[in-house]
Amino acid sequence: MSDNISGGHHASSQLDEASQVDLEKRNFLIASSTVGALGCAAAAVPFVLSMTPSERAKAAGAPVEVDITKIAPGTMITVEWRGKPVWIINRTAEMTAELPKHDDQLTDPGCEVVSQQPEYCKNKDRSIKPNLAVVVGICTHLGCSPSAKLQPKGDMGDNWMGGFFCPCHGSKFDLAGRVFKGSPAPVNLVVPPHKYLTENTLLIGVDTEDKA
Fold first, then answer.
1. CB-neighbour burial class of residue 79 (10 A; exposed 0-12, middle 13-18, buried 19+)
2. With the C-alpha atoms ordered 61, 143, 210, 195, is the resulting torsion angle positive or negative?
3. Domain ends where: 15, 34, 50?
4. What is the mean pLDDT of the chain?
5. Residues 6+ apart with CB under 8 A from 196
6. What is the pLDDT averaged over residues 56-64?
7. What is the pLDDT of residue 114?
8. For a surface tag, which of 91, 98, 102, 115 has the fewest beta carbons within 10 Å of its beta carbon?
9. Catalytic residue IDs
10. CB distance 91 to 98 below 8 Å
11. What's the whole-model pTM score?
């Protein structure tokens, strides 16, 4: 009987040791997870702090100032606002003259879908200044970024008078961001709120008080 008792004590001791090991493992895992989470959070703080004030403001959706004197006629630049690419196209007089000539080929030539542009851009140029178009560079089909095809003809064919082509599914837009009929994109490109602080400074993200 003493052997049985001794064996029982031995088994009980083994169980106690196993339980203690399991408990220590659990505590270690919990502590490791906590330290890991804290480490990630700590790592994120220096990353956020490393951003300049202007970058943090931009990420938060603050208005963005743009010097438009650097945009040569017939060219465009891309700036970021609220994490989105915004195109600023300096259209030549020839480019703007072409805009009303293909209205019959467009889905919404008169910009009737008001949500796609502010009221003050609901005009023939779809802009405040006739030569400067301000458009969000995201296709209204599935969110791809169209390619700039500003010059007429070329690889877009003899009937092409300049605009944008989405390589994902073939949507086409003119130099005012208006979509051509037959494109997968259902509506025109978005014109963001914007205003001019001076003749040479554009502010994206704030509505102008001017009317169309």
1. middle
2. positive
3. 50
4. 82
5. 128, 129, 202, 203, 208
6. 71
7. 86
8. 115
9. 169
10. no
11. 0.71
